[in-house]
Amino acid sequence: MLGIVGGTVLEKTKLADGTDKKSIETPYGRSEVYEGSGFVFIQRHGEGNVPPHRINHKANIWALKKFTDTVVGVGSVGSLKRSLKPPAIVVPEDYIELFPVTFYDDEIKHVTPGFDLTLRKQILDVARWNRIKVAGKGVYVQTRGPRLETKAEVSMLSNFGDVVGMTLASEATLACELGLKYAAVCSVDNLAHGLSKGRLEFMDVVDAAKTNAASVEKLLHGLVGESK
Q: Please, what is the average pLDDT of the chain?
């Protein structure tokens, strides 16, 4: 059973078609889970299009643990490098979480976070078998949102990372704390603010995400097939 958490790039996905919608109560609130054949799917922004800084990551990850020990997070990101031009897909090897979240708010317990190496390799293998071009290296940087980053922030972050988003690192850390394997698939849908001509608007990011949607869904179908 493969757990999938989707965002903007999977806003119009057909993954949920024919699935069984379940409302899962967790110690952190309710999460809506769509159970299909060989996978469970969560739309992290929910039906109400929750902004990134208000997503209940704890409830989502806790709910997934009831179904699976393997989770792939899919997110729309901006490129921090002019050499990484959209549309592109990146499977990052590490991340920077500027505003960490944790299940351990009331106790001292340390984990060593990171993406699962075996799951990353599986994603890259499935991409290669299906002739989907992906970049297998890169560092994901998470900012808080909901606003996009300033030019100065992008300039600073580009020294440390390759893509920037608002959700995947939080999911990865929480998954690690619950003993879940987690890896990310990043849909590069824009050059970050200041790296391209003109003003970057959020709706431009949403429109660009549609370009990568078909390739991302093809990759996910391949992973679901592998997990059965």
A: 92
Cβ(115)–Cβ(75) below 8 Å: no
User: Helix, strand, coil shares of the chain as percentages rounded to 5?
Assistant: 30, 25, 45
Least confident of 6-10, 133-137, 196-200: 196-200
Q: How many CB atoms lie within 10 A of CB 128?
A: 12
Dihedral Cα 150, 153, 159, 161, nearest 10 deg: -80
Secondary structure class of 69 (helix, strand, coil): coil
The β-bridge partners of 24 are 31
Residue-range domain boundaries for the chain: 2-227
Q: Which fold has domain 2-227?
A: Rossmann fold (3.40.50)
Lowest mean pLDDT among 5-14, 142-151, 154-163, 180-189: 5-14
Place of tokens 């600073």: 156
Beta strands in the chain (DSSP E): 2-6, 20-26, 29-35, 39-43, 70-79, 88-90, 94-97, 139-142, 163-165, 181-191
Q: What is the pTM of this model?
A: 0.93
